[in-house]
Amino acid sequence: MTAPAWLEVLNETLDACRTHGRADLAERLRRRRDAPEGQIRLGVLGFPKQGKGYLLNAVLNAPVCAVGDAPTPEVPTEIGYAPEPAATLVGRSRERTPVAVERLTSELGARPAGTLSRVEVGVPRELLSAGLVLVDTPPVGDPRSPRTAAALDLLAEADAVILVSDATAPLSAAELALARHVRTWCPHVVLALTKIDASPGWRAVAERNRGMLAEAGIDAPVLPVSAVVREAAAKAGDAELNARSGFPELLTWIAEQAARPPEQSRALLAAVGVRAAAAELVESLRDRVDAAGQDAGLGQAALLQRAQRRADDLRRRNTRWQNLLSDEITDLMGDVEYDLRERTRKIVNTIDQTFDEGDPVKVWEEFAVWLDEALTEAVETNYSWLAERAQWVAQAVAACFGAQYDQALPDLPLDGSGAEDLDDVRRPKIEKFKIGHQAFTGLRGSYGGVLMFGLITSLPWLGLQLINPISLGAGAAFAVKTIRDEGGMRLQRRQAVAKQAAQRHVDDVFLRYSKEFRDAIRGVQRRLRDHFTGLAEDLADELTRERETIMAGSAERERRTGHIRKEIDRLAGLHQRAGELGTIAGRKRRELSA
Amino acid sequence: MTQDVRDLLHAAAGLYRDDPRASAVLHDCLDRLEQPLRVAFAGAPSSGKTTLAAALGEWPTRALRDLVLLDDPGPADDLPDATVRLVRHLEPDELAAAHPPGGSAFARQSAVNSVLVLARADEVGAGRIDALLTAKQLARRAWREDPLCTGFLGVIAVAGQLAYGGRSLRDDEFDLLAAFAAVPREELERHVLSVDSFTDPAFPGPIPVETRRSLVVRFGLFGVRLALTLIRTGCDDRVKLSAELVRRSGLGELRDTLAGCFVARAEALKARTAIIRLEALLAAQPRPGGDRLVSRVERFAAAAHDFRELRLIADIRGGRTALSGEPAEEAVRLLGAQGTAPADRLGLEPDADPGDIYDAGLDALRRWRHEAERPDRPHAERTAAHVVVRSAEGLLALFA
């Protein structure tokens, strides 16, 4: 025997439900598939106090269900055929406890909540003898309550549903929503309008309900009934009164449900179940696609935009810091050279003055010491100023990177000036150089003070004003003896030789040292360039990675969304196939009944 | 109490002198203190608010004279002083929806201003003749057992339609009903089985269908059946029938609760409304210097004894305390459930000798002080006794 077409469609939908994390829907379809054959289950659903119990008792002509102020059970009651009245409590783990029918209500009240899964009642009624099972459910209410869930659980197995709403008021919005939900899962639904005996306006309410159901596209007849009238009719054996109770129509409807050929009925139920599950699944998948789309639409664009802004920013910063570094290094080079030249010029001036008036023979020793000290000091001062300026350049360039620069500045190659390695000034060959012959007579005052050489940088906003004191005072603190006893050519020649020797030494030092500081500055430039280029590259890499991540994320989302879309299409296909199967099943039924 | 609130409102008016809207609110609060208590009827559509308000509103008694009944509360700032909340069934969903919203700590702690009404009590139990009794039992049980009913001063089953019909019963209606009642019961039985059978053209007698229809629309099928039964069992004139219908409708119980819990506490409830509005204003528009006023409001709220009395009355009557029987009755009386005058509290005649009142008060104070200090009683019980002691002290203070 080949599997029926509906089974294939149902299984496929069931798998899809499971795949997409809707175990609840899968379970419903599974129960629909595995429903026991030879049983027609007719569920009774409704909000509290609508007269469900009265209705069922009136259908069965027996007080089976709890009515009035008796507490309604939290679990469904299944009423089937039995030759003798019987009741069984079915526990959570399927254990069965038979109880006497008349003690059922008190037994139910004595059970703690949550220990039962259902109640089974058997009654000797002709109506039920062909395998019809009436299922009384807990009242529907708060959608989150377990009671509501237990009631709606019925829809997994019900072949038909009686919705119960009383005639004191038209269907509420919640009742209409319930009707829509029930009709989606179950093809055969009737609305029993109860309590028409006590409601003067029940005809208007019935009309209003019919209109509302039609408007909502819910195909369900409305049957007004009165359990009170039915009971009175039964007591009096009054057929005419019974007809007025509205129950004959309802019973006819119930009998129709029971008489439906089982195979067609199963096919139709399976088709309806597949359609409902597919629709619900598609809805939840659509929600996911929408959510992903929103996520992508809003989040990704913003992220990309931010990354783009940061890249542009980085480009601007790159240009700025490179320009700044090269400008600053050029300036530094010039400034340092100027500073050194200025310092040496002053020394040379002192040399000139010293030997214009002094006799080298008398002053050389002392002069040589002074000259060394003066040169060392000049070089050292110049160098330390250079080091400070280089540090400042590093900071200025770092500032170009703004808040993103959170690293330590690089160590610059400026540990020492090398001034201690300068050669001592060599003593020139001076004729008749008589040491100590003449004593210092006093201090020449021209360099007795402190010479201030200030270089004010061009960047005052950094607060980095460099004032470089060049103290030549100590160096000039030797006396120039006025020459009286010796004059003429010899003295002048001695003076010229000494001047020349001293000046050449200064020139040597200047040349040597200016090479040194140029190298140092170039070293600084190279070090800073490498450091900041590396930093800029790191930042650029980071941005690239970020953009890649964003792009990859969107591609992944795109892929997932595409997958979901494909799933939606697949489910739509299943939905359609189920619809065709349902139509076939429905047509067969009509042909048979015709 | 009212004077304290007036002082607070005047102080606040000074604080918000330059704010016309706040000033208007504060002046409205002051005006309301002089006006009758405003009681709102709240509930889902078609729960019978209008019918019940009408039935109560035309009540010609002194007890409810100083009451304005608001059919369905208006906007939020038109805060009612007390609420009658109607539900159609005592079902968890409906009860949960009937719970008044929170508010400030004071508003919640003093939320002793609503009564729950199981309206349409005649529909309980498929409209059988004992529907009203069943409904009353259900209401009592819900009040005692259902945690969702804790906050209410009472849960009362009322058949609004019956009450209104009974209150406004006309002579011609009585005559009609009496004529029907004269038909032998067995013969009439099937004609009052349903609205349809009652308005059926085959109904015996010359009464036109339309007349019968208007009767059943006004009283409900249950009302008609009850009236017929009552006429047969002795309510043989309009006044008697009217009184009996109203008595059975539960309207009297509702009226007594409103009189005892609302009207007798009108000053406290109006003060409460004013304080809640003042609190809201102080919170919404804080002002420098408002802190002092806020702490004054807090002190007032903490000291307000009336709300503790009302809550304890509700707890004792709802069976939520260990008190029962004679002591419980004495406690609710001392707490002012039957009137807040000293004689009412002590269960003496209104014209009792002041000396007797004083002695009785002193006696009550001694006994309840003893109860409040018994170490063998649970804490909750002693706390309850303390509230009674405070009430007794209050009534004695009037003699100082």
TrEMBL record, chain A:
It holds the Pfam family Dynamin_N. InterPro entries: Dynamin_N, P-loop_NTPase, TRAFAC_Dynamin-like_GTPase. Residues 43-183 form the Dynamin N-terminal domain. It comes from the Bacteria. SUPFAM superfamilies: P-loop containing nucleoside triphosphate hydrolases (SSF52540). This is Dynamin family protein. It comes from Amycolatopsis mongoliensis.
TrEMBL record, chain B:
This is GTPase. It comes from Amycolatopsis mongoliensis. SUPFAM superfamilies: P-loop containing nucleoside triphosphate hydrolases (SSF52540). InterPro entries: P-loop_NTPase. The lineage of its organism: Bacteria, Bacillati, Actinomycetota, Actinomycetes, Pseudonocardiales.
